Amino acid sequence: MPTPSATPDAAEPVISLVDVAKTFTIWEVPSRRLLAPVFRLFPGGEKYATPTRFTALKPTTLTVRRGECVGIIGRNGAGKSTLLQILAGTLQPSEGTVDVRGRVAALLELGSGFNPDFTGRENVHLNASILGMTAKEIEARMPAILDYAGVGDFIDRPVRTFSSGMVVRLAFAVCAHVDADVLIIDEALAVGDARFQFKCFATLNQFLADGKTIIFVSHDSNSVKRLCTSAVLLEQGEMLLQGAPNDVVNIYTKLVATPLGRAAVEDDLAAARARTARSVTATGTVVVSSPVDTGSRLLAEERSHEQISDKEYTYGGEVGQISSLLLCGADGAPSLSFLSGDEARVVMVCEAHAAVADPIYAVTIKDVRGQEVFGTNTYFRGDRVQAVDAGRTTTVTFGLRLNLMPGNYFLSAGWVRLDNGDVQVIQRRYDAIRFEVIGRDRSFGIAYCDHTIDVRTD
């Protein structure tokens, strides 16, 4: 059971898990739980008195410090929700120790902690009380909570009449106003509309800026890379890797795509662990970093017009291979430096070792944090693409206008096909090319928009 402590010091762990595991006991026939002592009195009765045990979370050690946002990703059944419930204190571990310092606010699932027959206002009182707020604090913050949730007159109606998005908005509004030290979120924000999601991410960014801690579970890998300082990969209850979000997400995508399971990513896991640099500061804080996240090593490199792949992560290649990948200017000459708004071409050469029906060709541009800036493929565009016979070579050219702000970016490429609705990876090459965009002027923001300014004085 988590043991809440006083407000955490920046030098101390906010969350500390040591060999924490959770095993569930499952009785195929529920009545046998009561009759088990009787069965054990008779010869051969032991088989009727022995339940099935399922380990949802294997021994896990994890330390999270103040100001960190840790993303947790993994396939369905990987143990993500079990881990979060243990952190939130709604589930006790079977073994190990859990220490959570400070007040915890948890948004574990849609409407968790809400009574559907209570009104929205009554549920705010109930939920905020559970999170440790006094009646006086709740009344003082009620106007801000209701304004943030934006559910209007529904606030005095039973929650069962709310839409799923309204329930999440109200639940998140409570969490955002309880002055928690640790915020735990489990995929719940996915149902909110675009405007509310923007508000939520702004709140989370401010939460981190204030030195608070976030544990974030999402299947949206871009959100993990955008928000988190590190990420954890779970598979069948085991923590396979903690490291830079981009590295963890890359391996997760391969794990999802391959039918071989964990065996297919063992070498990648070993390489990622070796690549992840851990340094301990004078205060004892462990910092997880990588060249992609900091960009320090890449920025220090001498600029070169050679295609580089110092951080490339690739898998596939058995059925076919992306044998060549070039980034070129509008004139067709290879280039790694562009002005905002320049035209560029991505030339991808694919060699088929076996016949590939219904091929799909894709490119993605990511920033130095691994955040996806732009991505497209022939399937999304509705392009009709011919099948490729074994031994044939296909050249695919993507024409792009780089309406990007100044900075360093990474280009990824993919070759896949759909097989009965499932994605079969031919080959993926992540972060294969780094290139630089130089500003045309002193415009600011996250994208460069072609623009004019017309000033007239009468």
Describe this structure in words.
With 458 residues, this protein is an alpha/beta fold. The chain folds into two domains: 66-81 and 103-289, P-loop containing nucleotide triphosphate hydrolases (Rossmann fold), CATH 3.40.50; 300-438, Coagulation Factor XIII, Chain A, domain 1 (Distorted Sandwich). Helices cover 25% and strands 34% of the residues. It is built from twelve helices and 20 strands. The protein has helices at 32-39, 80-88, 120-130, 135-149, 164-175, 194-209, 221-227, 245-257, 266-275, 291-294, 296-300, 378-381; strands at 13-26, 52-65, 69-74, 95-100, 104-107, 182-186, 213-217, 230-235, 238-243, 277-280, 286-289, 313-316, 320-329, 337-339, 343-352, 359-367, 372-377, 393-401, 407-419, 422-438. A six-stranded mixed beta sheet has the order 5-6-7-3-8-9, sandwiched between helices. Strands 12, 14, 16, 17, 19 and 20 form a six-stranded mixed beta sheet that branches. It has a three-stranded antiparallel beta sheet with strand order 2-1-4, with helices on one face. Helix 6 (194-209) links the parallel strand 6 (182-186) and strand 7. Helix 3 (120-130) packs across helix 5 (164-175). It is globular and about 80 Å long. Mean pLDDT is 83; it is low at 277-309.
